[in-house]
Amino acid sequence: MPRARLKHLAKWLAALLLLALPGPACIGQVSTESQLKAAFLINFMKYMEWPARSANGTICLVGRDTLGASLAPYEGRQVAGHELHIRRITGPDQAAECQVLFIPDIEEARFQAVLRWVENRPVLTVSDAEAFTGYGGAIALVRVEGRLQFDVNVEALNSAGLRPNSQMMRLARQVTGASR
Amino acid sequence: MRMHISLLAAFLAVAVPQVRAADILDELSLEDLTKTEITSVSRKSQSLANVPAAAFVISSDDIRRSGAQTLPDVLRMVPGIEVAQIDKGRYAVTARGFNGRFANKLQVLIDGRSIYLPTFSGVMWENDAIALEDIERIEVIRGPGAAIWGVNAVNGVINIISRHSRDQEGGLVKPTLGSLGTGRLYARYGSAIGDNSSWKLSVQGRHADASRQFVNGTDSNDNLNDGLADLRYDRTTGSGSELALWANANRSKLGDLILIVPAPTQPLTLLPFATMQKVSSQTVGGRYRWLSDNSIESSLQLSASKSIVEVEKYFREDRNTYDLDYQGRYTFAVHDLIWGLSHRTSLDDTAASSVVLSISPAAFAQRTTGVYFQDDWTLVPDKLQAGLGARWDNTNLGGHSLAPNATLMWTPTRVDTAWAKYARAPRMPSRAEQNVTVLSSLEPPTQTTPPVVIRAMQGSEPLKAETVDDYELGYRTQLASNFNVDLAAFRYRYRGRLSGQAGEQNYDLLPVYGVVIQNLTLCNCSSGWVTGAELSADWLVLPAWRLQLSYTWTRIRMDASANPFAEADGQDTEKGTPRHYGSLRSQWNISSGRQFDAWLRGSAGYDRADAPFPDLVHVPAYVTLDLRYARKLNKSLELAITGRNLIGPRRYEFVSDYIPSVPVEIRPSLLLSASWMF
């Protein structure tokens, strides 16, 4: 009797494990916010016209690492004709080799300083802080009613010598600095 | 056999999803991405992947979903932090041992400004310094943080970061009504001024009826009234510099019942005395951040505050505090440099002159100045980083101190981080420890000894800083794309910890015949080891269901001492910290407008001196449960019902030290709250 009960319990436990173990539930679902942000970064690389010398497939992360784990699965893959690399950088000297530079919202106090590292260079700057474009950053990922949208600062793109594809501009939630 | 197969299937499933998930995301176009709904529960803890310290972040979402009404209750979710409720307003909060009503080894800062009461170098949690709704996030770093944050950041730093007024536009009214006679009202309004400026004003009022005494169920006089107003203005100038100005005022009234009055016929029996404690403070301050042409990032912060603490009949203190902080940062090559300078002048004027409690000198001007420097040095890009820093402080109450800090962080992969840390931190003796004379405990008579009243007082030698040397290791990893684990283990060596030694005896001080007064002078005469480990795990079981576990193990071993008082104190200290402490939180988004959260938390039992008597009483272990259900009715209105302390036997969580308040019963409660945005 106790043995049967034990077996029964074991079955339940196994079933519970199957249901609950990380993994199966996620397949087929784009779920976490950081995974979605990582996918946006990859797409921005594809939807942008890059000067030949700047396209090297490197995404640089500054400050607290909020996206590294979500970007990791893309590492080494071909994105827009280049092998994708991810680098954590801490200073301006390392910023020379970045194609995309991501600064998390938590580093807002440093936006101005970090933007200066890549000033007038063909680097796409992205953050997940709504205020980012106001600081002179190129793209801000913004959470609006349970979805991720993005704002584009055209002036910042121009001074970096980058041209967004028209479809990307159409999808943007807000476009600033376009009056020229 | 079938079981084996299903287990195998389960484990296989764990190994696959990372790659699969990426595949699927890759196929989505930008347009698809903008249409994808985020159903998952947010996970902010990941943002600590590259911090070489035992750190934990509480997001504003975590605060809201916890159902907690006070800051200390929110902190219960952090591994390594021990929280015990004393009564309706008071809490004992510490990191890694040595808890107490004025736990003095934990630094608490709001936007970089310490909310310590320097008198006891502890935080008066009953006096709300910030409304929970005004908090952007709380970053808790266990372990010494003195190399940056200065003296008293000994076993932890709690950094509260307030919300930018830009993110608080519009109005919000949030009334909460609860059982046990509790109520709370929070209201806020904020708006933008042009493109570059914004402001907000928030107010909060809180009331709680008195609890019941644990022993006999009668009223324990701890009724609380607490109010707070906070004004903030932010401005960004064209050149990228930023200005923030704030003004806030708070005020609290909280009763207390302390065992202090000798019974008329039996002077050795102490009767409870009902007293009222009033605390108020006003602060104005500002911060200016700028970037100079040579790319040095600077921040200058100034603040002035005025506070009054009054315990009816026994104590009153008027205090004016002025703070100045400068921090600079410069990055070049593989170096990330931070340096800073801070100064605090705190002027107090106290009145305490009873037999029980007196302070001499009555007024004091404490000045503390510190400078620090820190370099984070990338040895191998993306793989290995070293950190080296030190801070020097000088105060006219305790002398000068040096706090070095060294870290090494290794990130072999994107998802694994291992770190090691050595740090030293000083804790400066507080004003009370240096200058107070207090009747601290009563030893009842035995057949051979007379009754003895212990009188703690300053010794002939000035007190020096207590120091801790900390050796720490940590490891963080992502076991699957939805499962993170964070481990930290530490060993602390305390030296020169404050304890007491017997001084002379007096016989004529109290108007009671036959009672001996035993003087006890404070000394830097205790030392010992604290060992501990902390685990936090974060598991997104389903996109809409997240589980978070935190577990803390702590052990204190004080050195044996030939001094009988220090020996007894050491033994009490060893027993005064729960060996196990932990919680499991569940956050479930039932649908986009409905949330259901559960929080199971518990603590092992421990022993504390039953002040004012020297004998220990046991604070029993407990496990309890909080539940919260919230429903969004429309875009602007949300209702929530919260149950706190729902299971477990009736309990008390703490026995007050230092001030002999009676233990109160922590009871189940229900709270209803509405949140209306306009």
Question: Could you describe the 3D structure shown?
Answer:
The complex is a heterodimer of chains A (180) and B (678). Chain A has 180 residues and is α/β, with parallel strands linked by helices. Chain A is built from six helices and eleven strands. In chain A, a hairpin with a 2-residue loop joins strand 8 and strand 9. Chain A is globular and about 75 Å long. At the A-B interface, helix 1, helix 2, helix 3, strand 5 and helix 4 of A face helix 1, helix 2, helix 3, strand 15 and strand 24 of B.
- Helix % of chain B is under 10%
State the distance separating the first and last CA atoms of chain B: 60 Å
- What is the number of strand segments of chain A? 11
Can you list the strand order of the major beta sheet of chain A? 5-2-6-7-8-9-11
- Tell me the CATH topology of chain B: Maltoporin, Chain A
The name CATH uses for the topology of chain A is Rossmann fold
The biggest beta sheet of chain B reads: 22 strands, antiparallel, barrel
CATH-defined superfamily of chain B: TonB-dependent receptor, beta-barrel domain
CATH classification class of chain B: Mainly Beta
- Give the ordered list of helices and strands of chain A: HHEEHEEEEHEEEHEHE
Output the number of helix runs of chain A.
6
Q: What oligomeric state do the depicted chains represent?
A: heterodimer
Low-pLDDT stretches of chain B are: 5-23
Helix content of chain A: 25-40%
Question: Sheet bearing the most strands of chain A, described?
Answer: 7 strands, mixed
The overall average pLDDT of chain A, rounded, is: 83
* Biggest chain-to-chain interface with counts: A-B, 72 and 79 residues
Q: Based on helices, strands and strand pairing, what is the structural class of chain A?
A: alpha/beta
Evaluate the radius of gyration of chain B: 26 Å
Name of the level-1 CATH class of chain A: Alpha Beta
The CATH architecture term of chain B is: Beta Barrel
